[in-house]
Amino acid sequence: MIRSALILMLLPLTAVAGPWPREAGQTFLSISAERDRQGSRYTGLYGEYGLSARVTLGLELGRTDLGEASAVIWAQRALDDGTGPNRFSLSSGLGAIRRDGQMRPVAQGALAWGRGFDHQLGQGWMTGQVLIRVTGGMDAAQQSPAFRITDSTIKTDLTLGLRPTDRLMVINSLWLEAPREGQGTAKLASSVVVDPGGPVMIELGLVQPLHGPAERSVRLGGWLEF
Q1: So what's the architecture of 2-225 in CATH?
Q2: pLDDT tens figures, 40-67
Q3: Domain limits, the chain
Q4: How wide is the angle at C-alpha 17 spanned by C-alphas 1 and 40, nearest 5°?
Q5: Sign for the pseudo-dihedral over CA of 130, 20, 93, 95
Q6: HSE of 78, CA atoms in CB hemisphere, 13 A
């Protein structure tokens, strides 16, 4: 059960790309480490680069202490013209995951929505994303092995964030995942991101399972923009 939860973690849950495009020529990097109550660990790297005013490129790398690893590159395009309160984007990506000693291809597509708002406690934002991911492999059960889709999952991520000050963000996310096989999961992730005054912002968070095969875990990460 714990191993299954770690495999789900491999395709990163930390920084879900919002629908706002990264400014052209600007880069965002996030590295995080997560550890649950059973001592299982996950390390992830997430990056964005603003290719143009409407296109953002991304990279996601993940690894567990069980030797599972993944890498995905993606491109996101803004669907709106940048006016009005709502933002929409569409993204697609390709990559690979190493599982059971084998490398398997991964493809994904996502639709995202976002909206900013003002609150008496500070500026805030809301986002929602639906992502479909498929994993391929060789079907050894056939008389002549053939390539087929071996796994698929649908992820829904809902986020509410608030920035009370220029140096503090509070972020709460609900992560829902429904694999084609196995039990679905629901998690509540709460993080505080602090700017200590240097180039790196510090993230400290807690991931609380609500449903499915997972353990409570703590997260420590760093954010860098340049």
Answers
A1: Beta Barrel (2.40)
A2: 888 999 999 999 999 999 999 999 888 8
A3: 2-225
A4: 25
A5: negative
A6: 21
